[in-house]
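Bug report

Summary: C-alpha cells for L-2,4-diaminobutyric acid acetyltransferase differ between web form and batch submission.
Environment: batch mode, default settings.
Steps: 1) Submit the sequence below via batch. 2) Compare with the web form result.

Sequence submitted:
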Amino acid sequence: MLSLTSVEAMSNSADSPAHNSETIEIRTPSLTDGADLWRIAEGTGVLDVNTPYAYLLWARDFAETSVIATVDGEAAGFISGYLKPTDPSTLFIWQVAVDSRFRGRRLASRVLAQVVANSGAGRLETTITSDNAASIALFTGLARDHGTEITKQDLFTEDLFPPQEESGEHHAAEDLYTVEPLKR
C-alpha cells in the first residue's frame, strides 16, 4: 500500500465552498488520531459508535485503507475501511464521518475518492440504512465519478441485530451497496 497524504489550500469558489482560505490535509490516520476518530464518530449522533479502543486499533491495523481529514490542523472527518480478507480487491467502507463544524466543504467525497485511489481496489462495498440519504448520495456520486453503477441488495436484516438496551428495538436493516468497477 502507498502512504496517502494530500494537502490542498481551499478558497471560496464554486467548486470548493470553503469559508475563507483554509488548508485541508487528507492522510492516513496514526495512533494519535484514534481519539479524534472516536470523537468525530460520536459527534455525528447517527453512527454506531465503537469503543475508543476500537478506533485506536483501527488507526493501527487499518490505517492504509482509512483516511483522516484535517482543516487547518483540526480533525474534521474520517473514513474507515479495509480490504476484505476473502477478496482483497474489494474495499469495504465501514464508517464515514464529518464533524458538523466542517460540513459543506465536500470533505466526505474528497476523502472517499482518496481512500479508494489509495486502496487500489477494483470494487467497493459498504452498508447503509435505507433512511441515510446522505450516504446513499455520497456513494452514488462515487459511482458516477467512476463511470459505473451502484447496486443495492439486502444484507443485514433487522432480526440479525440484538435488541437495543434502551428501547428493545432492533437496529435498522443495513443494505449492501456495491460500486464496481472502480477506476485504478
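Above is the batch result. After comparison, the two runs are identical; trailing whitespace caused the diff. The helical segments are 34-44, 52-61, 107-119, 133-145. The mean pLDDT is 88.
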